[in-house]
Amino acid sequence: MDRDGLADFLRRRRERIQPEDVGLGAGPRRRTPGLRRDDVAALAGMSTDYYTRLEQQRGPQPSEQMLQALARALRLTVAERDHLFHLAGHNAPVRVRRADHVAPPLLRVLDRLDADPAIVVSDLGETLAENRRAVALLGATVGLPGPERYQVWRWFLGRERERYAPEEHERQARIQVASLRAAVGAAGPGDRRARELVAGLTARSPEFVAVWERHEVAERFTDHKTFLHPELGRLEVDCQVLLTENRAQALLVFTAEPGTEAADRLALLGVLGEQRFGPTPSEGTETSARTATGQSAPPRLPSVTTGVARAGDRA
Known about the structure:
It is a single chain. By secondary structure, the chain is an alpha+beta fold. It folds into 2 domains: 3-87, 434 Repressor (Amino-terminal Domain) (Orthogonal Bundle), CATH 1.10.260; 104-313, Beta-Lactamase. 41% of the residues lie in helices and 11% in strands. The chain has 12 helices and 5 strands. Strand 3 (222-229) and strand 4 (233-243) form a beta hairpin. Helix 2 (37-44) crosses helix 3 (48-55), helix 5 crosses helix 9 (169-187) and helix 7 packs across helix 12 (261-277). It is elongated, with a radius of gyration of 22 Å. The model is unreliable at 277-315 (pLDDT under 50).
């Protein structure tokens, strides 16, 4: 049980909620931000003294039933609830079963996205598949060695942030860490890969530690990004996400509003892809691609023969 982390997380989430969000009047004497401790206790059906002791790092380990009640009272998301369980020393319901091969449904969708950059990532942010336009936009990230395979590692300990406009750096850092917290909570404390990733970042990046200690938890569904492309310059794009049912993998598609300068620049990625990878095979030509684990994919249709860049395909 992480008493310090639990107390800090409860306090931050309590201060985030406004009384009117939970049906309470603001009242003339409210001076603290968000809810008061007795508000949370009443909403969770526990004594104010019990809740106060949790925030003061001196309470007993709360039961799973108490944690569920606190999650409801504090209006936690599923990801935040999992993190709460983890801090309290309990296993949250396991929602993710990680697989290194690309989920076939996502791969089928990726195969049909030849006009927009798109990648498939794991819950920890490892790129499992990418189309040619994604490589032209983001660089080749499938099959990178060791912890460099994870975007959050490259962000804090590599050069990933150089792809983003400077004003994006703080927000993107928080998004990276909040997404990692959600993945860790969903996977549970027994997930060795997640534990090692967090431990490695903690040991090497003071910046990561500072953001990690904010206890922000979020599953990233949509996001607006501003890239700095070395050839195309500034690119304003929206990122839409399609998740597998168990949320272990996600398809990220990058688009720009039609008729904008960003849309015109994204269209030029197709030209860059042709220059780097060669022309699309003619109709009737079969090509094959591989995932990061060497998984063979079915032959590509002519409209999607831009294919998926795989680790096994690179020298």
